[in-house]
UniProtKB/TrEMBL annotation:
<dbReference type="InterPro" id="IPR009279">
    <property type="entry name" value="Portal_Mu"/>
</dbReference>
<feature type="compositionally biased region" description="Basic and acidic residues">
    <location>
        <begin position="290"/>
        <end position="300"/>
    </location>
</feature>
<feature type="compositionally biased region" description="Polar residues">
    <location>
        <begin position="277"/>
        <end position="289"/>
    </location>
</feature>
<dbReference type="Pfam" id="PF06074">
    <property type="entry name" value="Portal_Mu"/>
</dbReference>
<protein>
    <submittedName>
        <fullName>DUF935 family protein</fullName>
    </submittedName>
</protein>
<feature type="region of interest" description="Disordered">
    <location>
        <begin position="388"/>
        <end position="416"/>
    </location>
</feature>
<feature type="region of interest" description="Disordered">
    <location>
        <begin position="277"/>
        <end position="300"/>
    </location>
</feature>
Length: 448
């Protein structure tokens, strides 16, 4: 039985389970086939005393597959590398920033993902001044009975139900997406072994040494010579005997049939984990439009992962654990963990176009704008809004009409004008010319 001790938990006395007396066993990494996977699933689905031990041993074997590890890591990092904040009423709590950036907390985020991959993950948080935990061996957790068994195949142990510093995330009906990856990883492993054997048979020349059936010494010398000549396939036969090696007449000697099987298994695992085949390679071909469409599908899966992780971290059970380490959080404080989402330029452009059309037809609140474009509202919003309205109103006022300015009178050559005036008016023609000239000069302001 696991040791049980009592400590003072937040607000009340609670029981702490310390995992110190579990009898651990080595992981079974023996050869696996489809029948082994199917039998393990049937044992895990039993109504009475279901046992997931063999299934989880199989999971530990298949995650050594390079392609499967790569696509799982891609999905985990899409959540792990997002910026995370704890916010109350829209304001970040700075006291948790150092915790969120710590290696231990980042590892915790990565382990939370095993609820999706394995269908089960458990933690025992260590009592102390710093955030710390131990991962509970998965094969010892019996989610149907809410106990942590002393032996992985047993049903006696300690109940974890209601224990405040033990967190078990479970999905009793499903066993994680690795269940669906198992048959493809197993078949791929067998296909790779067949390909290696194929290369060994047909990837290098075969040396045939012949000797007289009655000459034993020649036979020995021939074997020794072939052995010392290298590791290529060699055969020694009596000269009276014949041996015929039938070549590969099915795959044209290029191993294409094994490659098809290999790529098919990779594609199926990619669909299970990421939702499509556009993953770590471009072997499947396709256009840029196809790649963008697959990218959208992956983003939807990432959004679902982020939402689930945020819900787990924001749960009251986890807040109690953080509160025990002295962090300013509490159940019911209205706070939650929020992941910062990446900006999708195409999506942002579409939203902007829709917003321009809608806001031109109906009034829209500023808060809706901040929510739509995921932009934090400034603390001094009211003052900034007032200043913007005043500047906008000032720009809309009509400009004052310009004051007309009177042109200065041109300087007049008085001497010439006086000489002109002194001309006699006796002749009618002179009188008429003087009148016309005076009118012309008055028109252009030479004199009033």
């Amino acid at each position: 039985m696991a040791k049980v001790k009592r400590v003072t938990a937040p607000e009340q006395q609670k029981v702490v389970v310390t995992m110190t007396e579990l009898i651990l066993q080595t992981i079974d990494r023996s050869r696996a086939d489809i029948s082994k996977w199917w039998n393990s699933l049937q044992r895990a689905e039993q109504i009475s005393y279901p046992n997931r031990t063999n299934l989880y041993d199989l999971y530990e074997r298949i995650i050594l597959d390079g392609h499967l590890t790569g696509i799982m890591d891609k999905r985990v990092k899409s959540v792990k590398n997002k910026k995370l904040h704890y916010k109350v009423n829209g304001n970040s709590v700075k006291e948790l920033d150092d915790l969120i950036k710590s290696i231990k907390f980042r590892e915790f985020i990565e382990l939370l993902f095993e609820k999706k991959s394995h269908g089960l993950v458990g933690f025992e948080f260590t009592i102390g001044t710093g955030f710390d935990y131990q991962v509970i061996p998965r094969k010892h957790i019996k989610p149907e009975a809410k106990i942590i068994a002393t032996e992985q195949n047993g049903w006696t142990g300690t109940s974890y139900e209601g224990v405040w510093n033990v967190m078990v995330l479970e999905d009793i009906k499903r066993f994680g997406f690795l269940l669906r990856c198992c048959p493809y990883a197993i078949l791929k492993s067998g296909s790779l072994s067949d390909l290696a054997q194929y290369i060994e048979l047909y990837g290098q020349p075969i040396r045939v040494g012949k000797y007289d059936a009655a000459d034993v010494e020649t036979k020995k010398e021939l074997k020794r010579a072939l052995k010392e000549a290298g590791a290529s396939l060699s055969i020694t036969i009596p000269s009276q005997a014949q041996i015929e090696i039938i070549g590969d007449n099915v795959t044209n000697g290029n191993g294409e049939v094994h490659k098809v099987m290999f790529n098919t298994c990779n594609n199926e695992m990619s669909i299970v984990v990421l939702g499509n085949t556009e993953t770590t390679s471009n072997d499947n071909g396709g256009s840029n439009a196809k790649s963008k469409e697959h990218g959208k599908q992956q983003k939807e899966i990432h959004k679902d992962d982020i939402a689930e992780m945020a819900n787990i971290l924001s749960s009251d059970a986890f807040k109690v654990i953080l509160q025990s380490y002295g962090y300013p959080v509490a159940p019911g404080d209205g706070g939650s963990f929020v992941f910062e989402m990446d900006i999708d330029l195409d999506e942002l452009k579409t939203k902007s176009e829709i917003w321009s059309v809608v806001s031109a037809k109906v009034p829209v609140a500023d808060d809706d704008w901040y929510t739509t474009f995921n932009i934090p509202k400034p603390a001094n919003y009211d003052a900034m809004r007032k200043k913007m309205d005043e500047e906008k109103a000032a720009q809309q006022q009509p400009a004052p009409a310009p004051t007309p300015t009177r042109k200065p009178k041109p300087k007049v050559n008085n001497q010439a004008f006086e000489e002109f005036e002194e001309l006699e008016d006796d002749e009618p023609i002179v009188k008429r010319v003087k009148g016309a000239a005076r009118a012309f000069l008055q028109r252009f302001g030479f004199f009033e």
